[in-house]
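[step 3/7] inverse_fold.run input=structure_tokens len=187
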């Protein structure tokens, strides 16, 4: 008898988290479409990292990571969720942008973990910064494997993006300061 009420409460919460994860995946998919190819690098400039750290910061570590795993599965099976520059489907995960993509769930989880205790200014800035640094680490690691040159991987995979990503950290902090309390129930 006691299982029924607990289960009745758990299913709506689970449903809410699943819908939030799907919404996060779709938000990243939409942000990924805003991509601009840059000369000298196979990595496009995109709004996806902003959406990734916001998914983690707003949805929490677990739901944010689930959102990004959902996003990766959607892209791997061929849905047009990745940036419109590069190989389609699962092949994208093995190409020059694959390391960034594979780092997305970890980046969202870390951004969510850092901001979990509240979105004070330090946490609201640190969470997205840690998330974007995690994305860089994944991307540079894969570029290093593909190119064999650490200096080339860093030059192609981070330097063209630092200024824009600092701006993304600032925007994410503003959003987190304003809305993180509203989504606390999803964590």
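[step 3/7] decode complete -> sequence:
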């Amino acid at each position: 008898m006691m299982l029924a009420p607990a289960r009745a409460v758990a299913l709506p919460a689970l449903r809410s988290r699943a819908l939030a994860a799907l919404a996060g995946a779709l938000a990243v998919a939409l942000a990924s479409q805003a991509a601009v190819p840059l000369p000298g690098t196979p990595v496009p400039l995109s709004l996806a990292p902003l959406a990734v750290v916001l998914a983690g910061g707003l949805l929490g570590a677990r739901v944010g990571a689930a959102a990004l795993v959902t996003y990766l599965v959607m892209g791997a099976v061929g849905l047009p969720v990745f940036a419109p520059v590069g190989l389609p489907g699962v092949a994208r995960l093995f190409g020059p942008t694959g390391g960034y993509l594979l780092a997305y769930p970890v980046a969202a989880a870390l951004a969510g973990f850092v901001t979990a205790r509240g979105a004070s200014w330090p946490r609201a800035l640190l969470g997205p910064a840690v998330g974007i640094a995690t994305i860089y680490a994944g991307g540079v690691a894969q570029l290093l494997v593909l190119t064999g040159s650490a200096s080339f991987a860093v030059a192609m995979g981070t330097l063209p993006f630092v200024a824009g990503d600092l701006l993304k950290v600032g925007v994410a902090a503003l959003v987190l300061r304003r809305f993180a309390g509203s989504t606390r129930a999803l964590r």
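[step 4/7] annotate
DSSP finds seven helices and two strands in the chain.
The helical segments are 3-32, 48-59, 61-76, 98-115, 121-147, 150-157, 162-179.
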